[in-house]
Amino acid sequence: MSDPTNPSFRQRPLDSFFQQLVNGLALGSVYALIALGYTMVYGVLRFINFAHADVLMLGAFSAYFLSPAVGLVLPLPGIAGSLVVMLISAAICAGVGILIEIFAYRPLRGRPKLTVLITAIGVSLLIEYACQHRAVFGAATRPFPTLFRERNLDLFGVTISSNDLVVVLVTALLLTGMWFIVHRTRVGIAMRAVSFNPQAAALMGININRVISFTFGLGSALAAVAGILYAMKAPGIEPLMGIHPGLRAFVAAVLGGIGNLPGASLGGLLLGLLETFAGGIPGLSNYRDAIAFSILILILLFKPAGLLGKSSVEKV
Amino acid sequence: MLEISGLEVSYGAIRALHGVSVRVPDKAIVTLIGANGAGKSTLLRTVSGLAKATAGTVRYDGEDITGLPPHAIVARGLCHVPEGRMVFANLTVAENLRMGAYLRRDSAGVAADLDYCFETFPRLKERISQSAGTLSGGEQQMLAIARAIMGKPRCLMLDEPSLGIAPILVRNIFKQIVAINRDRGITVLLVEQNANLALKISSYGYVLETGRVIRENDSLALRNDPSVREAYLGG
Question: Does the structure's ipTM exceed the value 0.90?
Fold first, then answer.
């Protein structure tokens, strides 16, 4: 029998289930935020922006360099200071994302999608290896500054890390904001219009390039925040840190139905949960990716367009 | 108001328009008839900036607008309702109409025009929060026209509004085109395969054949022209 007053006996199966659930949700939240960027860009330009994963890394590095400066003005670790760090990093990355689009992708507008895709891989490698140069960030792993003082919270007998809670809360906030932008604002509706039919959107007076810039900016800002949240839980940051979560988020976007915004969030959460629970199976934790991706392959076998994707674009 | 002169357009090696000239006077309804592949849609697409001209000019209100991007042309009050309607099927009817008014800042004027659109096409009001992809072909055409009106155009270019629509709705839509022209003083350039109806509501007409204007005249005269009757009006 477990004794609730003795911490060493607290780990009941149900507790561990809830802890894994929170872990999974936190990891999935990060994937969801990144996946939104992939899926939004795919929505308006129909290609996968592989450099997106590196924008995430740049977000984490922005926070790394900003924290000491912000720490002079606002207490860090602390909520206000962290929010300022996140906001400035998001703004920097939004700018980076917009510049990548203007210089790398815009000149290729109207060219075969494969050309753009290869360019995206090129941009990704360029950022990764340029940043590994010692004149930039260097290849070494750096410790990420503490933004939020981590505490273990006791919620209904389940111990969860406050950082996990922060990740889930920030993500929930951003997803709500995204929903609002995409469904309630002029530029958000224009994004959906461009995604459905760029020519018809142009005939409404929508400046397509401006909407595309906005899309890149928004996706990159989300990636920056995701990068910071990811770095908070990672052992440290380095220029290749974006590859792992980036690849998973890309899979999450496909799983949810590429081009579909709720799909990307759902796919991200699902993938995070699958990975965490698969990793929690005793003796099989080394196979967690194999298990998670096998389940994904199964889902895609039955729903090739993704969970929320339409099997074909409605043509009228 | 709209003056197209010597317009030439090529798709790769294929020339779609060989020096087409069309004049649309202020507040008139002018129609452009012709068979499939005559270049009617290409002409409108070039005027609205979706396609690029290799030669010739488009003047609107005396200003040369050749080669401007589509959004700049819409901003000048020249709206194009494309062939196949191209409503945003993933957006609701209300969102489609809001996109039509994308460039406008006068919310009072937008609200008034929305009322006008619902008066003209009451069906759209019934379906306001439905996604546009669920509308029938005729309703989508109504939405496409209403969406263009929301942009407060002074000149409207309509590409085949009768295409794939039930005959009873076609009559209604044409009636509304006349009403829009009369009530709002919007100049209309109407491209149609349904030459009979198009010539009935227009004052002047052009006949386009394989990228050239082969005939132009008052619509009434064209309707009585034996060669036009034989080729386009079914004898």
Answer: yes
CB atoms near residue A264 (< 10 Å): 34
Is the omega angle on the peptide bond into residue A77 within 30 degrees of 0, that is, cis? yes
Are the beta carbons of A186 and B91 separated by less than 8 Å? no
Output the six-digit token pair for A290: 């194999």
**B88 and A206: CB-CB below 8 Å?**
no
Report, in angstroms and rounded to the nearest whole number, the Rg of chain B calculated over CA atoms. Answer: 17
Query: Each residue of A60-84: pLDDT tens digit?
Result: 999 999 999 999 999 888 999 999 9
Three-state secondary-structure class, residue A183: helix
B85 and A202 within 8 Å at the Cβ level: the answer is no
Nearest-CA distance from A147 to chain B in Å?
Answer: 40
Mark yes or no for CB contact A203/B50 under 8 Å.
yes
What gap in Å lies between CA B103 and CA B140, rounded to an integer?
22
- Considering only the beta carbons, identify the residue of B70, B90, B98 that sits closest to A203: B70
- Token pair 């109409």: residue: B97
Q: What is the pTM of this model?
A: 0.90
Nearest by Cα to A241 from A87, A55, A23: A55
B232 and B207 Cβ atoms separated by less than 8 Å: yes
